[in-house]
Amino acid sequence: MSEEKQEQKADMEELTCPQAADLAGCTRAAVNNAIRAGKLSARREETPRGPLLWVKRSDVLEWSNRGSEPRRGRPKKGVTTDRPTDSAHSQVAL
Predict the structure, then answer these.
(1) pLDDT at 31 over 60
(2) How are strands ordered across the β-sheet holding 43-47?
(3) What local confidence, expressed as pLDDT, does residue 50 receive?
(4) For residue 81, which phi and psi values (nearest 5 degrees)?
(5) Which domains does the chain have, with CATH numbers?
(6) Cα(38)–Cα(48) distance, rounded to whole angstroms?
């Protein structure tokens, strides 16, 4: 099998939520929340032990590479996202 076909097969591979969380480096709850919010697509399968959610490996990688999205609302007063360029905190004492 060619390398390109192997990559395509790997991208189409389906993972359970715990497997997707391991791949993305996050919690199962984060994966489930992304599915509920519509940020990550999933296929539901009914089993005797309850429903299972399956997600495509390529979708998980795309979702995890997007990074976190900004939170809703305004930033808290006095909190800045800029880092100081020249301060006592940036200097290391030896």
Answers:
(1) yes
(2) 14-16, 50-56, 43-47
(3) 94
(4) -100, -10
(5) 9-68 (1.10.10)
(6) 26
At residue 24, the 3 state secondary structure works out as: helix
Q: Quickly state the pLDDT bin for 60 (edges 50, 70, 90).
A: very high
Tokens at 38, concatenated: 């519509």
58 token code pair: 């390529």
**Closest Cα to residue 17, out of 38, 35, 39?**
35
Q: Which amino acid, 22?
A: D
Residue type (1 letter), 69: E
Rounded CA-CA distance 73/71 in Å is: 7
Rounded to 5 degrees, what are φ and ψ at 86? -140, 90
| One-letter identity of residue 35 | I
- Could you tell me if 42 and 54 are in contact, meaning their C-beta atoms sit under 8 angstroms apart? yes
Per-residue tokens: 6: 């192997």
